[in-house]
Give the backbone structure.
Amino acid sequence: MAASINALLKLSIIASLLIGSCGVAYYYAIYLPRRDVQLDEERAQEKARIAAEKRVRQERLAAEQKESERRQAVAKAGAETRYQTCVKSATASHDTSWADECKHLAEKAKADHEECLAKSKLSRGYCDAAYRNRDGSPNCTLPQKVATDLDGDLNTARNRCQRERKAALQ
């Protein structure tokens, strides 16, 4: 009986070693490779997800930058249009003031000439010399002070237009 117990014991040890080695073999031959494949797939999916998020973020930033550049271009074009309109308005105002001043001085010279002839009983030659006819056209020559004042007003208006354009572009 000791021999059969001994044989049974040897068989049970061999069976337990076989079962244990089957477990170890299963772990190393089947479980670990599957787990490694699954982990590799998860890592690949995570990398793909991160790459997709990065690409979406870059596309969004590029779209935002393009939109910002478009808005800046529109703002710049608008500022430039307003600047050109402002300068044209200032120039038109200057030209109108210049023409009005020319007309006013011509009318005043004519009125003074007529008053000289009517009231003072002076000779026509004296009145003609003292109160010469002035050019009443919009391109007349104005006295230095009047011309300087009008040109100064034009430069001030142009500078204001320039400041407004710079402020709009900032």
